[in-house]
């Protein structure tokens, strides 16, 4: 199947990190039964509502609880670790679960520094629809990444005085450790049967490095919907055939909530705006609220504008409605595969959403 899952291990209001992690393992088992191709977990830190802070550890637990589904990271952040430590961690999981592990890599640390000094989006930038796909006005991340609390958190993710090397050099080190061409040897890790991916939100260095190294690329429509077309275009333009790929391979992410009827789906998805607001105000992802808790929140016009691009690009509705919107996303981006992330307060609703979506997707 050309659908896969990205799981943030969300902590629901009234729940704990242990609840979220048990839900993640259960959902992975269910996803395998539903026929999803791969199951990725994200890396987030200092977020009250997200339990997925250590992808390699969580991937090992998921791999042990499943049998056939590919498991991986979406993404481990090289700005916080060395290439050697990442290869050793994922090599360890591969040693026990060979041929099933994806090493998805991001450059959050480096990108944060770029966004802090980037120019705000042009005032002329406007929302548009491309062949049925909404491309919203770009969000200005510069204020968020310079938030004092986030700046302090960034210092805690590295040793004092540490300098993150260039991302391209780090990727080359990862590939060299895996291929046994580095001067040092990673054990475990060298020779591991890992599929290396690069994740990116724009047409910048991540897309360039993925293309030039001939690696598969994952573009984030669910995080940065305004720049998804730019990202996949830059990757394809930079692509060079490699030992891993003869031609470009793209996965594109999307937020989705599915239920038997549209009204129920919209109610289940209603806390999403409040959750995005908590991220974009610098507080970190909050525990995911119930629909009633979300309805009680007093919204301002500024609040609504802060989250509008993410809310408007979330795919919510019946199985056929969401499947059709995902087909539009796949067609417009030329994606080979889609990576769906679903968050609801109740775990059973999230499992059911993925089940309904898989059924609708497979009917076509």
What are the SSEs and their pairings?
Blueprint lengths: L2 E5 L9 H18 L3 E4 L13 H11 L4 E4 L2 E2 L5 H14 L4 E6 L1 H10 L10 E3 L2 E3 L6 H4 L2 H9 L10 H13 L15 E6 L4 H8 L4 E4 L7 H11 L11 E9 L3 H8 L2 H9 L10 H5 L5 H12 L2 E3 L1 H15 L3 E5 L5 H17 L1
Parallel strand pairs: 1-2, 1-12, 2-3, 3-5, 4-5, 5-8, 8-9, 9-10, 10-11, 10-12
Antiparallel strand pairs: 6-7
Structural class: alpha/beta
Secondary structure tally, helices = 15
Q: How much is the radius of gyration in Å?
A: 19 Å
Any low-confidence stretches, pLDDT <50, length ≥5? none
- Could you describe the largest sheet, including whether it forms a barrel? 8 strands, parallel, barrel
Count of individual beta strands: 12
Gross morphology = globular
What series of H and E elements makes up the topology? EHEHEEHEHEEHHHEHEHEHHHHEHEH
Q: Give the proportion of residues in helices.
A: 40-55%
Q: What's the mean pLDDT score?
A: 94
Strand neighbour order, sheet with most strands: 1-2-3-5-8-9-10-12
Please indicate the percent range of residues in DSSP E strands (runs of 2 or more).
5-15%
In whole angstroms, the N-to-C terminal distance is 11 Å
């Amino acid at each position: 199947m050309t659908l896969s899952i990205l799981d943030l291990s969300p902590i629901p209001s009234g729940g704990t990190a242990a609840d979220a992690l048990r839900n993640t393992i259960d959902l992975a088992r269910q996803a395998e039964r539903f026929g999803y191709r791969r199951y990725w977990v994200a890396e987030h830190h200092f977020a009250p509502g997200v339990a997925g802070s250590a992808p390699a550890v969580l991937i090992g637990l998921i791999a042990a609880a499943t049998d056939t589904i590919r498991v991986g990271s979406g993404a481990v952040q090289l700005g916080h670790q060395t290439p050697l430590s990442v290869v050793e961690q994922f090599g360890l999981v591969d040693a026990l679960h060979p041929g099933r592990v994806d090493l998805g890599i991001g450059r959050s640390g480096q990108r944060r520094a770029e966004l802090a000094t980037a120019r705000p989006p042009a005032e002329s930038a406007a929302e548009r629809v491309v062949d049925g796909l909404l491309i919203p006005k770009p969000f200005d991340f510069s204020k968020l990444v310079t938030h004092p609390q986030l700046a302090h958190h960034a210092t805690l993710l590295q040793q004092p005085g540490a300098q993150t090397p260039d991302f391209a050099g780090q990727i080359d080190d990862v590939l060299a450790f895996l291929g046994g061409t580095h001067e040092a040897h990673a054990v475990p890790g060298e020779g591991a049967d890992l599929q290396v991916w690069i994740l990116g939100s724009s047409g910048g260095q991540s897309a360039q490095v993925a293309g030039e190294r001939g690696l598969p690329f994952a573009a984030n429509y669910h995080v940065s919907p305004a720049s998804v077309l730019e990202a996949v275009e830059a990757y394809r333009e930079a692509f060079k055939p490699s030992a891993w790929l003869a031609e470009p391979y793209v996965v594109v992410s999307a937020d989705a909530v599915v239920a038997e009827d549209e009204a129920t789906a919209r109610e289940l998805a209603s806390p999403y705006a409040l959750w995005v607001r908590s991220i974009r105000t610098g507080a970190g992802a909050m525990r995911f609220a119930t629909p009633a808790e979300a309805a009680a929140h007093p919204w301002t016009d500024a609040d609504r504008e802060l989250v509008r691009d993410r809310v408007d690009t979330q795919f919510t509705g019946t199985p056929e409605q969401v499947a059709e919107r995902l087909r539009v996303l796949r067609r417009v981006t030329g994606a080979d595969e889609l990576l769906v992330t679903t968050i609801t307060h109740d775990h059973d609703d999230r499992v059911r959403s993925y089940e309904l979506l898989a059924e609708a997707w497979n009917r076509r």
